[in-house]
Write a structure and sequence with these properties.
By secondary structure, the protein is an all-alpha fold. It has helices at residues 41-47, 50-59, 65-77, 83-91, 98-109, 121-146, 160-169, 175-188, 195-205, 210-221, 229-239, 246-255, 273-288, 292-309, 318-328, 336-356; strands at 25-28, 33-36, 39-40. It has 2 domains: 25-224 and 336-358, Citrate Synthase, domain 1, CATH 1.10.580; 229-328, Cytochrome P450-Terp, domain 2 (Cytochrome p450-Terp, domain 2, Orthogonal Bundle). α5 (98-109) runs antiparallel to α6 (121-146), α7 (160-169) crosses α8 (175-188) and α13 (273-288) runs parallel beside α15 (318-328). Bound molecules: s-citryldethia Coenzyme A (SDX).
Length: 382
């Protein structure tokens, strides 16, 4: 039963609307807590792996040792792309942006899946696995293609994070680098009904297919108000000339009512717990890789933002310190958001699978404010 238009509340931006129930991630925005299926994000970042975290999101429980081994095996045997997909990668324009390429390539995965429209639970799980496991090759493959480098086929003996860095750089990463990447993937894996997850749910709720839902999500993640912010944070850090220029830069932006990217959040009015973790992490990696100046710049921006807008609950979000972390890991700026997608695909698909258990079409109303009963005038008389 739906309410009459008079009984409905207008809620621009869905700020105060709960659209569904979910048992995947819990966010306490007042106290800065994030849990996946009841496990604290900090605990997972310290102890889990991206593979295990994905199992948790897809099954709503941690795996046993043998289940994890089996799941890891399934992931690794799915890393590689078909020859046709590799051909599609090298047919893309070299100057395309990696997010546009990733959206197109993820969508293209559906073209060679004869079960792309099979709505069964089993087929949806298989498609989720295909997107999760192949995204690293899509991103790394496109990056090497645009740089004119030979493509590197995946190595099915190593973890998803390690394999991504291997396919990207052509050499195996150090253990420390691979672990850093893995922790970043864990921290970005899920986050309630963020805009891209919600977009994927709108698509799946029409009983479309998992490839379409994830393609929708990638397009939504790309915007600078959402996942695209991490790249813009880095551009900002590079624009600032040095520690002495930070004050003027930030104050000037705030005076013009410009947003400082990487700050503020719809749900967190306390420090984003992922940012707490990433800050410590960014500091360590920046020190190891000689990027301390970048970290100092970030810290100075945070101090000024805290002084100016901290009392309004505007703190660093996940995108702020992930930028320094990725940069210190030697990742190109325009790959920051694809990396977010490579992790979040686990959450997108988990939410779609969960929503389909009790599907209902998502279709809100709009508050029509245009004219009524206009007289149609023939085009020759307008
Ligand atoms: C992600 O939803 C998720 O869970 C997302 C995410 C995930 O894991 O999926 O956590 C990932 O998307 C992180 C957010 C990345 N975006 C940015 O870093 C862009 C910069 N931040 C913002 O533009 C903003 O804070 C949003 C978009 C994140 C939230 O927007 P809201 O909830 O619509 O809030 P708003 O823009 O209306 O801001 C409220 C007030 C405004 O001031 P007033 O008009 O009330 O005076 O806070 C101010 C804003 O001007 N404000 C900022 C600010 N963020 C909010 N002022 C300066 N710099 C900022 N970054």
């Amino acid at each position: 039963m739906s309410n009459t238009m008079q009984e409905m509340q207008t809620d621009i931006g869905l700020v105060n609307t709960i659209v569904a129930r979910s048992a995947l991630s819990f966010i306490d925005g007042e106290n800065g807590v994030l849990e996946y299926v009841g496990y604290d994000i900090d605990d997972l970042a310290r102890n889990s792996t991206f593979e295990e975290t994905t199992f948790l999101l897809w099954n709503k429980r941690l795996p046993s040792r043998s289940e994890l081994a089996e799941f890891t095996e399934q992931i690794r045997t799915n890393y590689d792309l078909s020859d046709r997909m590799w051909d599609i990668i090298v047919s893309l324009p070299r100057d395309a942006s990696p997010m546009h390429a990733l959206r197109t390539l993820t969508s293209a995965l559906s073209l060679e899946d004869p079960g792309a429209d099979d709505p069964s639970e089993e087929a949806n799980a298989r498609k989720s696995l295909a997107m999760l496991t192949k995204m690293p090759a899509l991103i790394a493959g496109f990056d090497r293609h645009r740089k004119g480098l030979d493509l590197v086929r995946p190595d099915a003996t190593i973890s998803l994070s390690e394999n991504f860095l291997y396919m990207l750089n052509g050499i195996k990463p150090t253990e420390r680098m691979a672990r850093a990447m893995d922790i970043c993937l864990i921290l970005h894996a899920d986050h309630g009904f963020n805009a891209s997850t919600f977009a994927s749910l709108v698509t799946i709720s029409t009983l479309s297919d998992m490839y379409s839902a994830v393609t929708t999500a990638i397009g939504t993640l790309k915007g600078p108000l959402h996942g695209g912010a991490n790249q813009v944070v880095m551009i900002m850090l590079q624009e600032i000339e040095g520690l002495d220029s930070v004050e003027e830069y930030v104050m000037d932006k705030l005076a013009k009512k410009d947003k400082i990217m990487g700050f503020g959040h719809r749900v967190y009015k306390a420090y984003d717990p992922r940012a707490t973790y990433l800050k410590t992490f960014a500091e360590g990696i920046a020190e190891d890789t000689g990027n301390t100046e970048l970290f100092e710049l970030s810290k100075r921006i945070e101090q000024i933002m805290d002084r100016e807008v901290g009392s309004r609950g505007i703190y660093p979000n996940v995108d702020f310190y992930s930028a320094t972390t990725y940069f210190s890991l030697g990742i190109d700026l325009d790959l920051f958001t694809p990396l977010f997608a490579m992790s979040r695909v686990s959450g997108w698909t988990a939410h779609c699978l969960e929503y389909l258990e009790d599907n209902r079409l998502i279709r809100p109303r709009c508050d029509y404010v245009g004219p009524h009963q206009q007289e149609y005038i023939a085009i020759s008389q307008r």
